[in-house]
Amino acid sequence: MDSSAQKFYPVHGFDSREHLETYLSNKPDMVFGEDTIKFPMEFLYHLFSEGHIKGDILIDISFGSYIHHLYTASGYFKQILVLKVSEQCIMEVNKWINTRTGAFDWSHVMPYIKCLEGNSDQCQDKDMTLKTAITKIMKCDIDNENLTDPEVLPPADCVISTAFLDFISKDQDDYINNFRKVVKLLKPEGTLILFGILNSTYMMVGQDKIHVFRYDEKFARKVLTDEGFVIDHCAVHKKTADSDLMDYEALMFITAHRE
Predict the structure, then answer these.
(1) pTM over 0.90, yes/no
(2) What is the β-pairing status of strands 250-258 and 186-198?
């Protein structure tokens, strides 16, 4: 399939349940657990457990219907606001929050939490803690300077963006413009946590080939510094999944704050 056949996430959407089943489930043939589940959860656990990043509001603006990366974060913020481009992704997260029939089952991530936190009793409460912390799930429009126009959200103590910019950006200029919109959600003294997929061009979801903007660590670092951010920490995780479903070289987490 050539690049002209690729679908652009903000325009064409994708099957969010198929995406979860392919990349984040506990199916025997799901080869991405180390990269998409374990690495992000470990990074965020160690980050938040240091106790420096906390506050009233966390805004999560992430690709797809991810929520597992928020389990640890839910213990450090009074409320979490979740922004999604796709109505289908909003419906998927709402089904999980409201424990509706057919909601995606995230119970397979609990062993990771137990391994990190070492308390099985607390792990049993993680679902409810996160569901209670998420006070709003709303649609965002990447064509607007204010992503949630006409509603203006209170500025966040922390913004987590998980692979969001990778799927909504067509080129370098587009990525920079979208980055500027995302960081407008952040308090001047707030923390940005940016997750990226390095040197990737596509992701398969069912029969759909979804466009991914290709960039490297050097480009990501330059965008942050050019936009006035100081990088506090950067972790790069070389891919462990060998699959034609997605081409990527590594995954990257960056935490940063404005000077």
Answers:
(1) yes
(2) antiparallel
